[in-house]
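Async update (no meeting this week)

Hi team, since we skipped the sync, here's where things stand on the single-chain job. The sequence we agreed to prioritize is pasted below, unchanged from the tracker. I ran it this morning and attached the output directly underneath so nobody has to dig for it. Comments welcome in thread, and please keep replies under the output.
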Amino acid sequence: MLTYLFSHVFQEMMHRIDQDTHRRTWTLVTIKDARLVNFVILLCLLRHCNSFYQ
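Output:
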């Protein structure tokens, strides 16, 4: 009974840690994607402005 309880608690802890890690990784990826999108938009705007003034 005690080993079952301990293993159940351990599995629950590991599941929460795994979820937390997954959430943090997803947040980092999302931030990187947002930066990349902003950079691409900036490049497109700069090219557009340069072609507009020439």
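Quick observations from my side:
The radius of gyration is 23 Å.
The chain has a mean pLDDT of 82.
Reply here if anything looks off.
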